Amino acid sequence: MAEDAAAGMHYKRVLLKLSGESLCAPDGYGVDVDAVGKTADLVLACQGTGVETAVVIGGGNIIRGAQLSALGITRATADYMGMLGTAINAMALQDALEKRGAETRVCSGLDIRKVMEAFIRRRAMRHLEKGRIVILAAGSGAPFFTTDTAAALRAVELGCDVLLKATKVDGVYDKDPKKHPGATRYDRLTYLDVLNQGLGVMDKTAVTMCLENELPIIVFGASDPANLQGVLRGEDLGTIISA
Questions:
Q1: pLDDT in tens, 71-118
Q2: What are the residue boundaries of the structural domains of the chain, listed by start?
């Protein structure tokens, strides 16, 4: 049935990048049950189409390594703390998904074997082939890299067709649309446009990795699961970043 559902989709395997803030109340911190449920519904909207779905989630609702580093904590230590924050979020998302009937696996870049399995590329790919949602926790397992870079890395490792970045707005703008009502939304950009204009869609390491591996990025609004399903059908929603 999954193959039939995926027949009309533009992609076979995707990586969905979510922010940690998608799991907390607006302008809040920590984990909010209602917010987690909405985010789980977004992931299910993707996986329910029959598209093989991997997820990378940030940890900004709990802790940010870069902010801790600025406060004086050793950068590597701060980044490991941030990775543990993403592991907490991964467990919360897994719980919400499984309560909705989904089959999931959490694969961690750090060794946390009591609660999640270690990321092994071939094993994770097998989970995807079996229709399981694979939630990728603890970034790349190495400090000095953001979850954006971890998302690009895992997408390339797992042979994903596209990296989908869910945001609060419906694409990439030349200015912050919340502060500048007249901001212009881009329909398409090249990787070099993003790098040269400093658009801040993802960090430079992540964008460069996508460029070198010809992995397209689509930035779309996460407020409505129908937006994501439209992206999967190949509709011109959000902003497409490619060569």
A1: 899 999 999 999 999 999 999 999 999 999 999 999 999 999 999 999
A2: 2-242
